[in-house]
Amino acid sequence: MQSRLELPSLMVIFGGTGDLTHRKLMPSLYNLFYQNLLPDSFAIVSVGRRDFNDEEYRNQVRESVERYTRFKVEEAVWEKMREKIYYIRFNFDDDSGYDSLKAMLENLDKRYNTLGNRLYYLAVSPEYFEVIVNKLDRHAMALNESSIRRIVIEKPFGKDLESAEYLNERITRVFKEENTYRIDHYLGKEMIQNIMVMRFANSVFEHLWNNKYIDNIQISSTETVGVENRGGYYETSGALKDMIQNHMLQLLALTAMEPPINLDTESIRDEKVKVLRSLQPVTGEFVKENMVRGQYGRGEIGIHQVNAYREDERVSPESDVETFVAMKLYIENYRWAGVPFYIRSGKRMANKTTEIVIQFKSLPKILYTKDEDLLPNLLVIKVQPKEGVMFQFNTKRPGTGNDIIPVQMDFCQNCMAENNSPEAYERLIHDFIKGDTTLFTRWDEVDFSWRYVEEILRIWREEETDLRSYPSGSWGPEEAHRLLEKEGRKWWLV
């Protein structure tokens, strides 16, 4: 067992009856209880609009924990968590509800000696972000000079740059920037956190991490599922906003950043922002030559026939929303000048995977490479569903001949059941409670990524960029493959 985190606090979850709370938040909190990573002076208050008492709600949480926790449920641990879970019912725009919540929290402060510290988690639809923040401010529940008051905002943070700026102004007017946690669950994944360790704790990689030795870098995040029941949301979003603006640009920034002066939160964030500042400017020619947008049609996923995007629930039959984006871009600084970064993300693809592939430059056509084409060295960081690292290099085939074959050194972190990697939310909740903002996005990161994406969207609207169709169960439109083939490269599937 690891030592406890000694930070007395009450965690208030708005949206306590929602899917996110039951699938992710409560199981993650159980895992933290299980590992003894929460303070004794800690309790959870869930706010919802359904009519439950404490016992009914606790029973529902127990079912969720049993279904989604990564540890076996132990009665002693569950009882410890159970007695610290409370439920209160009211509508998020109801002032009287906040009066009741405030009184409840003050009573719990006395019971658990939590010193007035509040951790607010907004596991609600985006339209309630401003409502809840304003109500917390109006009822004097947001700021207190003698205690800690923090807030977590779930994705999406705005639907465009204008709404993101407005939302940020409203939130930081009440909660200071250092107390505002914009969550991107991708950053909580184990192998994302490992990117910096691999680079900066291994001289063999960091010395090669530049344009002298790297040919290109590919960042992919693909899903086999469609938009499911999120058609209404996706029609106003699309793959560019849903994935590129946040997840993919965050992976890019972590992969390409310069070594920070130290490992404190702001130093790491500063280097990520420098990458976003250095992105190749978006122009009409850039979009035309370096971007592909697509939409899935009918096809097969496994043995099942699936519908086209336009046939999905709450989707327009004439929709021009993209479910796939592929792009090539450059980072215009000394380290990465001339190295293309390829990014792709799509739904209804052949496999579910998130990975970063670093392709090293090929050797000159001398000696062993003179008469045959050898596969390049690859370093692959596998984020999900498998977590691990693979390095591909060339060696001689056993026998009397002199054939050269590629071999792979493959470390899989979560292939064995006993190596049970933490859930992303588990790590992020723990950091939220500790007050560590390293894995949460700072406003200027959100700002730059929205500006970049907004320019692409503007050009798509004004120049009526083609929307390519691709069959479900494929690897996207053919144009996405030609994006690399025209320069003698290919997407790696490893």
Please characterize this protein's 3D structure.
- With 494 residues, the chain is α/β, with parallel strands linked by helices.
- It has two domains: 9-154, Rossmann fold; 187-485, Dihydrodipicolinate Reductase, domain 2, CATH 3.30.360.10.
- The protein has 15 helices and 16 strands.
- It has helices at 19-34, 54-68, 75-82, 95-112, 129-138, 161-174, 190-200, 203-206, 231-235, 239-256, 265-277, 284-290, 424-434, 443-463, 478-485, and strands at 9-14, 42-48, 85-89, 118-122, 149-153, 180-182, 214-222, 291-301, 304-306, 324-329, 341-346, 353-360, 378-384, 388-396, 404-412, 468-472.
- The strands form two sheets. Strands 7, 8, 9, 10, 11, 12, 13, 14, 15 and 16 form a ten-stranded mixed beta sheet that branches. A six-stranded parallel beta sheet has the order 3-2-1-4-5-6.
- A hairpin with a 2-residue loop joins strand 8 (291-301) and strand 9 (304-306).
- Helix 10 packs across helix 11 (265-277).
- The longest helix has 21 residues, at 443-463.
- The protein is globular, with a radius of gyration of 24 Å.
- The two termini are 36 Å apart.
- The model has no long low-confidence stretch (mean pLDDT 91).
